[in-house]
Amino acid sequence: MDLFSQGTPMGSEPLASRMRPRNLEEYVGQEHILGQGRLLRRAIRADQLSSLIFYGPPGTGKTTLARVIANSTSSRFVSMNAVLSGVKELRAAIDEAREAQDLYEKRSILFVDEVHRWNKSQQDALLPWVEQGTIMLIGATTENPYFEVNKALVSRSRVFQLTSLGERELLQIAKQALEDKQRGYGQWQVNFHSDALAHLVRVASGDARSLLNALQLAIETSPTEFPPPQGEIIEVTLEAAEESIQQKALLYDKEGDYHFDSISAFIKSIRGSDPDGTLYWMARMLRAGEDPHYIFRRMLISASEDIGLADPQALGVVNSAASAYDRVGLPEGQFHLTQAALYLATCPKSNSSLAFFDALDSVEKEDAQIPNHLKDSSRDQHSFGHGKGYKYPHAFRDHWVAQQYLPGSLKGRIFYQPTNQGYEGSIQQRVIRRREEQLELMLQEPREILSFSPNDKERDRWIRRLQGHNRQRQPLLEKLLNSMDILRSDRILLLPLRWNRLFW
For the structural domain made of 355-444, what CATH number should be given? Predict the structure, then answer.
């Protein structure tokens, strides 16, 4: 009982620290990497480890797993925290590792917690010693190591991802703490009221450290004094459990993985037309302090990328909600965020706007020429016939006429594929029908290969003189020629020969 002279087991050491597993048998969770027969489990047992990086959320057992390795290996084990240690401490650890290797032929394992906190130069200082085998690195990080850790270090390490613990695993950890008589509360009679322990497990959200801290607070504040008199039962009510854990601080870094993963889950919920998932992820981001303007910006993108012409109003709804939010602010602005998010989530969906990137790909791959009839007629109409043959759509019924708008080398190429969703469904058949008419016209039209010659004053005078002789026949001539729809590339034989005078 001397251990409890300061009021809590093992003095003032937190329960989460006291209950750290000492070996693989006590370690709970991460079966995907530590289950029977798994590579990492075999390597730890055989003491044949290479450099490792453990990546995962807080409370999933990264540091604990490093401690298990420390207790299982015959190598020297040195622990550092990247937040508190710099290059000076690192060099001292390297010197000690070199000495142990040279004098005693003993390997050294360097555990670096929060390894992503070291800058590039600090990580570079470690690299040559890892390459030479002087040090075996075990790094722990909550950030994706492929982005935050030196690529050379990552390439020389095995990366293992630890996942949040499930409720069954958290409950097992809690029971270990309640039953352990040396490090936990096994020597006392602790009685959790209905749903009290389940509440702690549920709100901990996969974080074992958060669970054990809340468990310690609930147990040690429930009796009048702790430790209680011999034989007294410690009653932990649901109210005490709720006060002990309150709301779990959400893991969220605006520059880290959880920021990008959360917004990804939000947008994918919109795209999947799931309003419940949409609201949950948005609430989670706002609860963690995300900037609402960032959420609006992503919704504006989604309104065109995922909805587009299926509901052309979606973009206007989000834009109006964003403007209203700027005028109102929080907390009432949450209504505008919610309205915009729900509108997007319940809209018909279309990603036909991605057709732009197919068109962009064609632009980069092909150097296509602008069709002559689409060129600017205000500059080179007389010399090269620019704009000749262009049909003004407003002069035709329904303000549309079939004609070629793509370059000649891209005739018949289709980029835009209208869906049958929402508004886009109402225009789908019209787009397809007009496209068919254009394709049919392209198959019928001969390709013009000739160009006009430059202006010739002598020839123009001859033409005007000839026109003067035929002024009385001009209306008839124009009516005849217009009905023939003659192209510049056509070759025409006129018989009898006297007609040559008419068709100069």
Answer: 1.10.3710.10
